[in-house]
Every structure is written in structure tokens, then in C-alpha cells.
Write a structure and sequence with these properties.
Chain lengths: 565, 432
């Protein structure tokens, strides 16, 4: 079919016309092959300009359109929409940026005019090879898989579950509640974490749209936003469940750094050296001491040392919440044992936010000692322990304590690695899942439709974990509306079956996990729903099998040829 | 059952009001709008992006903040479900969750958003020159202006306090230059009445007023700067195009950064300043590799998985960290002298060409007035209070009203964005 290309040059008031001689441009491009009509307009993005563009497309039966105007950032969508409204596939359009890339940056008028002509010739040459790629929509499931039944997973499940949205909450242990249920008190309100969890579990039970699968592990998650195929193995019944979901939330929590790795803290060597979690459990009414703070001897301690930052140097990060919960420990200790001497050994107090300094100051009033120590050592002394410490400036000191509470760093959960491999999620050097964007997309992962909340993405407080669960909910409810289809990127890459040698280089460089290997045919295959059209695979493919649908070699070559000629 | 349906009908698809078009307001608006909700985004200034667009680079990856957020701002302007009301403030609020009535006062821009293409031809002929607030007064602007290059919407505003026409003089300089007839002095301030189902408060922060402290010489000693002033000096679209210079035009050979200015007065840790100080050091070292930098701090608060590495990198680049309280900054010849006391009681002095003060983070202007209209309690420092502090920071004592970002308390960009997304989560989950 004969090509009928329309070329529209925008004056942009004086912005383009002041530098670029529009008459000369029109004279230069009018004789070009297939140039059906060449027009100028004072301001093509105005309502009158868009109407003029639409009328011209219809009147001249244009098959392709080139607009020479401003940056595509500004008005590419505007002009593509106008093409579509005039019945022309919007992919058969090309914008030449003769404002930002020409008129505004080229002081000499003659040079600017010459440059504009080259840019427009390039656009004409390129648009000739554009294909009318059709928009695609896919059906999607509104259901959600939540992995991890701690506070974050429970909160996300409650918010998401609705008559038109089912939530599968998978927990590997036999009960929900995560670490929060072991906390007899929460900072700063000193309410019981256990009671909070009991309430949460009651309301979860009442929600018929949540299916809770305890003692279960996710064995497979395959697919993409809107369409994940999930397999879960339940241990109790030893069966494999299969279902589809539209999104996945990882809320796999944390573990504590094992203080046995650092013998200087005496953990395991001295009876009364505890980790923070062990101390939390001691305070639970149903715990081994019935909620009483007691030494192994059965006596209450008279002096307690709290040692901060155990494992911080080894992990190379600050675990953020330890200073705060150690202040909570002070209050728990002082309320049971008002006479006990409590000393902190710490390097920096990290109390970020509007209310924590006050929590600290009020705790200080209970008579708590704070010793800034760069190096702390715990040794058994027969009766209890001796704590040797050294300040930043090198002065040394010594103190004794009946009970030592170590505050270890928070680590990523042991299951993180396995889940990362299954979901193709990148982890940072510390084992935490990496965000889609650390600042602007903190709860989304590198895989679209998979979200990471709470301590699975790094140390967080309970309130931060809940906020992140709510955030993932926001992202999911925004993207997966029941009954609505998902529009997918059309300018994706494709891999030619006949040229592909099966080297799989493309799979390594794809940041979206959009390429899989077809073992039967021994070729790489692009999943067009996952592909964002970044072009990594095209650049990396050694055999020229990968190409981008809107950036073919031919299109780029034709464009460059005209610019450089 | 009928009661539940009634509530669903009431809340289903109700529009949402978002107050503040900084990074939190933008994120909340986009998520809500993309789900199909109508959003009214009310912003008191003439532009979107809030404080974040003042930062050339943000920690820990040193992303260009303006570039990072610009696609979101563009998406916001293009989204048909979002009605952006700039130069607008809340005047009255009544009703309850699912059924709020909100009065808005919208100031005239005097430049037509449709006709203006943002070419900037109108600035030159304007005869008025005043301090540019966006640039912390480090440069001048005209009475018709955009705050900085790259502001969105890229449409200027006429400042009626300084424009000669509003001082009864017959100046038409800008109007005569504009070939698009975009300047329209017939525009009037408007009062709008909105019906919304839920409200998101994302009014951000301002910095502690450094003039309230006297010991550091801010406002008196010319080379004592606020952190935000230095942010603008470092910005490529700022008053010096990214050149870091003293008032005499020379680059500093030595810089001292003082943490926690105002912490004692405010009684809280502003949570982001340690990292912001580290970032300034990192950035200064990049621009001026030979510069000697000393940081004065009391406790380093660098929470989170990625920050310690950043700290170590900065430390290795040759930045000194001194745990001490600075008691006085004074002029000592061409340099500034900092008197400080270490924790073990030693009194010392250090000299530097430039002193940067890192002030506490405070709630945004007019927070108290807004809190009153919304009937939300505030903390004693004026931050909006959350209903259950240990559980989630975004829900307030008023059903249907949520808070995100620094309106609730000092926090970083990632936490702010997560809270914004969380408000969208709570609002969208209400309607089912």
C-alpha cells in the first residue's frame, strides 16, 4: 500500500520559529518520497492545533505522521492520542524534537534550520518502517498470596480480603503471629504484643475471604502481575494446593544474629546471658518463669547489663529498633525490680522520630545508667559476669552484672534465599530483598506484582512493618481492580526463533525476569507481559536474534542515516 | 446487611482530597487515581514536588531527586482522574468519613494553564526583582516567575505582593511579550466546595528557624549556612549552577557541619539529619576533592540496612567526625572559629571557612490551623498525631482522614512514600 506521510511543523509561538526558518524546512522536506502533505502551525499542542492535525489525517488519508515540535516528554502522548482519535494507529507516528534539541540549543539560525531539516528527514525515514503494533490487554486475578503470618502479613491480609478478592496467607510454622506474639510489651505505649496479636487473629478468623495455610510452604510462584500460578505444600495434610493470584506479598520477617559467633559476649558460656528475644519470652505470662524476671538460680537479678549493637560491626548496618526496645526493657525491668541496677553499654543512641527522645528521657528518670562503650566484653566471674568496656578515647572501665541482655542485630529470615531464587528476586549483600526503587518504590520488588514488606526488606519497627503492609495493599488495590484488564507495554522485545542459538545471555541481562528458556526448542522466549522494552537483551544478544518492536535495527539505521547524511 | 450496602454505596468511588503535592501527596494521588478514583490534589504553592525537588542528590544512592520525581510529576499532570489545584488552601472542613465537605480558597495564577507553554519569555521584561524563596533567598526572581528551572507545572505565577499592576501601576510588560496570550489579569481568586469521601494530609515539613539560636552566628556571620542553603548551592538548577562558594565567591578550603541544631529546643531527633549531613559531605567532596570536612555530632543515627556503608564511605573519603558540642561560632579573621567541648570535658577550637548548620525538622506551615479544621490532635511540636502510635503512623483519630510523610513526624523519602501508599491502601480497602 502506498505510504502517505503527513509532516507537521510546529512554530511553538516564537520558540521554534525564531531560530528555525520554517519556510526553508517546508521547502526541503516537501519533495521527499511519500510526503503527502507538509503543514506548519503556530501551536500544534493547542486545541486548535490538535483539531487541525486530526482533520488533516482524515482529509488526506494519511498512513503515517511526523510532528516536528517539542520534546517527546512534553507532547508525544498528546499527538499520539490525536492520531488515535483520527483513526490512525498511534505507533505510526514519530516526533522530531526541534525545540529542546534544536531551536533552544543552537544559537546560529542557519545551523538550527539545517539541523531541524535533518531531524525531520530522519523522522520521516524512520516512521516509514513503523509497524501498527496493537494495544494489548490481559485478564488478571485480583487475589493475593501473602507469605509470612507475622504482624505485616496479617495486616495486609485483613485489608485486602473482600468478597471480590481472596487472600491466601501462607505460614511455615504451626501458628500465626510471628515475633510480635512473643512481646509482652510494645514500645512506646507498653501495651501487650500478645494481646494485640490475639485480637488480630480473632478478626482474621472472622474474615471468610482469607484462607490461612499454616505449616505450609510455597513451592512455586510462576507468572507475572495479574497472573501468578502458585503451588503450596501443606505439611499437615501433605498435599499440594494450586491456585492463581494477581500479586504476592513477602512478609517473611527476621531472625536475630547468633551471638555465639562473638565469644566476647559470653553467650552460651554464662548461664545468665540472654538474647533480647529470650528476655522477651521470659516476660510472657505463659513463659518458663510465668512472666517473672529471674536468673537461672531462681533469684531475681540485682544488676542487669544491656549490651547494644551485638553483631552490628559484622553485619555492617544499624538495626534501627534496638535502642528503642532496649528502653522498653528498662521499663519492664524497673516495674518488676525497682531496686535493680540497670546499665546500658552502647555506642550511639538512635532515637529517630518525633516521640522517641521523650520515651528515652522518661526512661532515664527511672534511674538507668548509660555507658558509652566502643568495645564491651562479658566474662563469667563465678557469681555473675564482669563487663569490661573501653570508651572511644581509650579509657577503660569495669562493672558487674547478674544478668546480661544482648541486643543482637536483625538478619533476614532464613527462608529469604530460597524465596529469592523461586521468585527471581534480587537480594542485597546482607540478604534483604531489594526494592524496585529504594526511595520512590519502597515496597515493590524488582519483579512487578511481587511486594516486600516489614523486616524482609530490612530492620523495621512494628509500626513501620504495618505501614508497609498497608502500602503494598495500596499498590495492589490500585493496580488490580476486579473486572479490569491490564494494559501492557506494546513496545516490547522479541526473539527470533530461527536466529536464537540458545546461549541465554539475554536471560542474564533482563532486569524484569521476562525471558525464559524453552528447553524443547532450545531458544529464549520473551514474555510480553513482563517485558518493559528496555532493550538490554537486544544489545547483549550475540546472534542478532533479539529485537525491539519499535526500535528495530532498520528503523534506527534509517533514522541515523538521514541525520548524518 | 442493608447497613453494610449503604456504607458501600456511600464510599464506593467517592473522590479523595489530598492536601500537599510533595512526594507523599503525588504518590497517594497517583495510586488512588490509577484505581479509578477521582482525586483533588490541593497544593498551596504554584508547583508540585514539595521539598524533594530542592535536592540535587539524595542519599544513599545519590540519585538526582528532581530527575527521579519528574516522571511522577508528569504522570500526575497527565492523569485525567487528578484535579490539581495549585495556589490553593483548605478553608473549611465538615462532615465525616465517606461524606466530607471541604471549602477551598484558590488564588488566581494570572497565567492561563492551557495557553502557557512555559517558554519563560515573560520573565525578562518584568521590572520587579525580589528574593527567590525557593532558593533560600540566594538568588533573585521576577514578579512573574517559576521557582526553579524544571518546575512542574511549567507555568509561571504572578506574585501579587510584588507585581506593579497590583500596586496600581499600569505595567503590562509580561502581557505584551507573551505571544500565546496566556497572561490574564482578569482571573479572580475562587472559592470551591468539594465533596469527598476521604482525606490525606501530606503537608510536609519546614526547617527549624536557625535565627532562634544565637551561638552559631546564623544570619550574622556571612559564611554560616543552613543545610537547605547548601543544598541549593549544590543544585545544578540553583543560584550558582552547582558551584559551591563562600559569600566572597571563593570555594571553601574547609567546612564544618554541625548536627542536631534545635534538637534540644524541640526535644526530638529529626531522624534524617545525620544521613543528610553525610550526604552533604559526600557531595562536597565530589565537587571539591581537597576540601577538609569536619562533622560535629552527639549520636550518629543512621538506621537501616544501607546507611552504615554510606557512613563508612564518607569517613574513608577523609571526613573527620568529632563527638562534641559546639558552644560558639565566631569570626576569626577570614575564617570562622568553632569552640567545642568533647564528652570527656576537653575544650577545643577548630577553624573553618564555611559552617553548615543542620536544623531540626518541623511540621509544615499552617499545620495547626489545618489540624483544627480537620479536628485532628497534634503532638506538642505540632505534628499531626496518629491514633495508635505503636501500630500505624497513618491513621488519625478521625475516620477517613489519614496522614503521610513529615506531617506526622520527621522521616525520609522512602518512609514518606511508603506512608503515602499506605493511605491509598486504607482508603481503597474502605470501599468494599
Amino acid at each position: 500500500m502506498a505510504k502517505r506521510i503527513g509532516i507537521f511543523v510546529c512554530e511553538c509561538g516564537t520558540n521554534i520559529a525564531e531560530k528555525v526558518d520554517i519556510d526553508q524546512v517546508i521547502a526541503a522536506v516537501s519533495p521527499l518520497k511519500d510526503a503527502e502533505v507538509v503543514e506548519r502551525h503556530k501551536l500544534l499542542c493547542s486545541e486548535a492545533g490538535k483539531d487541525f492535525l486530526k482533520q488533516s489525517i482524515e482529509e488526506h488519508g494519511l498512513t503515517h505522521v511526523v510532528v516536528a515540535a517539542c520534546s517527546p516528554k512534553q507532547h508525544e502522548v498528546t499527538f499520539m492520542n490525536a492520531c488515535e482519535q483520527a483513526g490512525l494507529n498511534p505507533q505510526l507516528f514519530q516526533l522530531a524534537n526541534i525545540r529542546e534539541q534544536c531551536a533552544w540549543v543552537t544559537p546560529n539560525g542557519e545551523e538550527a534550520t539545517d539541523k531541524a531539516i535533518r531531524q525531520i528527514r530522519a523522522a520521516i525515514s524512520r516512521v516509514r518502517y513503523h509497524n501498527p503494533i496493537e494495544k494489548k490487554e490481559v485478564e488478571c486475578s485480583p487475589d493475593v498470596l501473602v507469605i509470612g503470618g507475622g504482624i505485616a502479613g496479617i495486616k495486609a491480609s485483613q485489608l485486602l480480603a473482600a468478597p471480590n478478592r481472596k487472600v491466601y496467607l501462607v505460614e511455615k510454622t504451626s501458628s500465626l503471629g510471628g515475633k510480635t506474639k512473643s512481646f509482652s510489651k510494645l514500645f512506646t505505649g507498653m501495651d501487650s504484643g500478645l494481646s494485640l496479636m490475639e485480637q488480630e487473629l480473632e478478626s482474621l478468623k472472622a474474615n471468610e475471604n482469607v484462607e490461612v495455610l499454616t505449616e505450609s510452604e510455597v513451592e512455586q510462584v510462576l507468572g507475572f502481575l495479574g497472573n501468578f500460578e502458585v503451588k503450596v505444600r501443606t505439611k499437615a495434610e501433605d498435599e499440594e494446593l494450586s491456585f492463581n493470584v494477581g500479586a504476592v506479598i513477602l512478609a517473611t520477617g527476621f531472625e536475630l544474629f547468633d551471638p555465639k559467633e562473638l565469644p566476647q559476649y559470653g553467650y552460651g558460656k554464662s548461664d545468665d546471658v540472654y538474647t533480647s528475644l529470650e528476655f522477651e519470652e521470659m516476660n510472657l505470662p505463659g513463659g518458663p518463669t510465668g512472666g517473672k524476671i529471674l536468673l537461672k538460680s531462681g533469684k531475681p537479678p540485682q544488676s542487669v547489663a544491656i549490651i547494644h549493637c551485638v553483631g552490628r560491626e559484622e553485619k555492617d548496618y544499624c538495626s534501627k529498633v534496638c535502642c528503642l526496645y532496649s528502653l522498653k526493657f528498662d521499663r519492664m525491668l524497673k516495674s518488676q525490680l525497682p531496686q535493680a541496677k540497670v546499665s546500658h553499654f552502647y555506642s550511639d543512641l538512635c532515637l529517630p522520630g518525633k516521640s522517641y527522645q521523650r520515651f528515652y528521657e522518661q526512661t532515664l528518670e527511672l534511674g538507668i545508667e548509660f555507658i558509652r562503650s566502643a568495645k564491651t566484653e562479658v566474662t563469667p566471674n563465678g557469681k555473675g559476669t564482669t563487663i569490661k568496656y573501653e570508651t572511644e578515647t581509650g579509657s577503660k572501665g569495669e562493672s558487674v552484672a547478674d544478668m546480661v541482655i544482648l541486643i543482637p542485630a536483625m538478619e533476614s529470615s532464613r527462608d529469604a534465599q530460597k524465596l529469592a531464587e523461586m521468585l527471581k528476586l534480587p537480594q542485597d549483600g546482607k540478604g534483604f530483598f531489594v526494592e524496585e526503587h529504594q526511595l520512590l518504590s519502597p515496597v515493590a520488588s524488582a519483579v512487578e506484582g511481587v511486594f516486600v514488606v516489614g523486616c524482609a526488606r530490612g530492620p523495621q519497627s512494628i509500626s513501620e512493618s504495618i505501614v508497609q503492609a498497608e502500602a503494598a495493599t495500596g499498590k495492589i488495590l490500585s493496580a488490580l481492580v476486579p473486572g479490569r484488564k491490564l494494559e501492557v507495554e506494546v513496545r516490547t522485545s522479541e526473539i527470533s526463533e530461527s536466529f536464537c542459538t540458545g546461549c541465554q545471555t539475554c536471560i542474564l541481562v533482563c532486569p524484569y525476569g521476562a525471558i525464559t528458556f524453552d528447553e524443547a526448542k532450545r531458544v529464549s522466549v520473551v514474555n510480553e507481559v513482563l517485558c518493559h522494552g528496555c532493550g538490554n537483551c537486544v544489545a547483549a544478544c550475540p546472534s542478532g536474534a533479539a529485537s525491539l518492536k519499535h526500535f528495530t535495527f532498520r528503523q534506527i539505521y534509517q533514522e541515523l542515516k538521514e541525520v548524518l547524511q | 446487611m442493608s447497613g453494610e450496602n449503604e456504607m458501600n454505596d456511600k464510599e464506593q468511588g467517592n473522590p479523595v482530597l489530598v492536601i500537599g503535592a510533595g512526594v507523599a501527596g503525588i504518590e497517594a494521588s497517583l495510586l488512588l487515581a490509577n484505581s479509578g478514583r477521582k482525586v483533588y490534589l490541593v497544593e498551596k504553592t504554584s508547583y508540585t514536588g514539595g521539598n524533594v525537588i530542592k535536592f540535587e542528590e539524595v542519599y544513599p544512592n545519590m540519585d538526582c531527586a528532581t530527575c527521579m520525581i519528574s516522571p511522577k510529576q508528569q504522570e500526575l499532570l497527565a492523569n485525567e482522574n487528578i484535579e490539581l489545584l495549585t495556589l490553593s488552601q483548605i478553608a473549611a472542613v465538615s462532615g465525616s468519613s465517606g461524606n466530607f465537605s471541604v471549602g477551598i480558597k484558590k488564588k488566581a495564577r494570572y497565567v492561563d494553564l492551557e495557553n502557557c507553554i512555559g517558554c519563560g519569555a515573560c520573565y525578562d521584561p518584568c521590572p520587579v526583582e525580589v528574593d527567590n524563596e525557593f532558593e533560600e533567598g540566594l538568588s533573585k526572581r521576577k514578579a512573574i516567575y517559576i521557582p526553579c528551572a524544571g518546575a512542574l507545572p511549567n507555568v509561571p505565577v504572578i506574585d501579587t505582593e510584588n507585581c506593579l499592576r497590583f500596586k496600581e501601576q499600569d505595567c503590562q510588560a509580561c502581557q505584551e511579550t507573551c505571544v500565546f496570550e496566556a497572561i490574564d489579569f482578569t482571573q479572580q481568586d475562587e472559592e470551591l466546595q468539594l465533596k469527598v469521601g476521604a482525606i490525606v494530609v501530606a503537608t510536609g515539613f519546614k526547617s527549624f528557624d536557625l535565627r532562634q539560636t544565637t551561638q552559631y552566628g546564623y544570619g550574622k556571620l556571612s559564611d554560616v549556612y543552613s543545610a537547605m542553603e547548601v543544598e541549593r548551592l549544590l543544585a545544578s538548577n540553583g543560584p550558582t549552577q552547582g558551584q559551591i562558594t563562600l559569600r566572597n565567591g571563593e570555594p571553601p578550603a574547609s567546612v564544618a557541619i554541625i548536627h542536631c541544631v534545635g534538637r534540644e529546643e524541640k526535644g526530638y531527633c529529626s531522624s534524617v539529619c545525620c544521613m543528610a549531613s553525610l550526604k552533604l559531605s559526600h557531595f562536597l567532596k565530589k565537587k571539591l576533592p581537597e576540601v577538609k570536612i569536619t562533622q560535629f555530632y552527639s549520636d550518629l543515627c543512621i538506621p537501616g540496612k544501607a546507611y552504615q556503608e554510606f557512613y563508612e564511605e564518607v569517613k574513608e573519603s577523609g571526613v573527620d567526625f568529632i563527638r562534641a558540642t559546639v558552644s560558639e561560632v565566631s569570626q576569626a579573621g577570614k575564617e570562622l572559629a568553632l569552640k567545642y567541648a568533647t564528652e570527656d570535658g576537653q575544650e577545643k577550637t577548630l577553624t573553618a571557612d564555611m559552617v553548615i548548620l543542620n536544623p531540626a525538622v518541623e511540621p509544615g506551615v499552617n499545620s495547626t490551623k489545618l489540624a483544627g479544621m480537620l479536628n485532628i490532635p497534634q503532638s506538642e511540636d505540632g505534628f499531626f498525631s496518629e491514633k495508635e502510635p505503636d501500630l500505624t503512623s497513618i491513621a488519625t483519630a478521625q475516620d477517613g482522614i489519614f496522614i503521610a510523610g513529615c506531617a506526622q513526624g520527621p522521616k525520609d523519602i522512602a518512609e514518606t512514600v511508603a506512608e503515602a501508599e499506605a493511605t491509598a491502601g486504607r482508603i481503597l480497602s474502605l470501599s468494599r
